[in-house]
């Protein structure tokens, strides 16, 4: 089993912070999404069917505030489980000093755009996701 981890960086944008000078928690969720989209595009590619997925559940632990000067942020992602129609994605967000600011787990469900319903992951997708599978 491989233990690949996908890493990307994101900038903290000027408009992301609230009146207290902290990045608003809703922006954390946007950062998670941006990292997840980069990960899924890199791993599963951009075809319409392959990689189409929806977030079924998102659990986030906000551990340390992000400020305007905390960036660039690093987001590390890996797969925690692969099921028949779903898979788990773990996210760890760190600031420029390496402080963990958030940890999150997304339950993703493979989605058929034509029927607007879940679909089984095909063997190719399962293999690609499996390259990033970490057993925790």
TrEMBL record:
CDD domains: 4HBT. One of its GO terms (molecular function) is hydrolase activity. Keywords: Hydrolase. It is an enzyme of class 3 (hydrolase). InterPro entries: 4-hydroxybenzoyl-CoA_TE, HotDog_dom_sf. It holds the Pfam family 4HBT_2. The keyword Hydrolase applies. Its EC number is 3.1.2.-. This is Acyl-CoA thioesterase. It comes from Rhodococcus navarretei. The lineage of its organism: Bacteria, Bacillati, Actinomycetota, Actinomycetes, Mycobacteriales.
């Amino acid at each position: 089993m491989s233990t690949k981890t996908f890493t990307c960086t994101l900038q903290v944008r000027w408009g992301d912070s609230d009146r207290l000078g902290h990045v608003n928690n809703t922006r954390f969720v946007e950062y998670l999404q941006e990292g997840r989209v980069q990960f899924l595009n890199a791993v599963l590619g951009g075809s319409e069917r392959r990689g189409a997925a929806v977030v079924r559940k998102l659990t986030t632990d906000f551990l340390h505030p992000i400020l305007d000067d905390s960036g660039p942020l690093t987001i590390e992602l890996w797969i925690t489980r692969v099921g028949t129609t779903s898979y788990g994605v773990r996210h760890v967000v760190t600031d420029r000093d390496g402080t963990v600011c958030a940890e999150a787990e997304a339950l993703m469900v493979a989605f058929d755009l034509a029927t607007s319903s879940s679909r089984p992951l095909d063997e190719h997708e399962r293999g690609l996701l499996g390259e990033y599978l970490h057993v925790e």
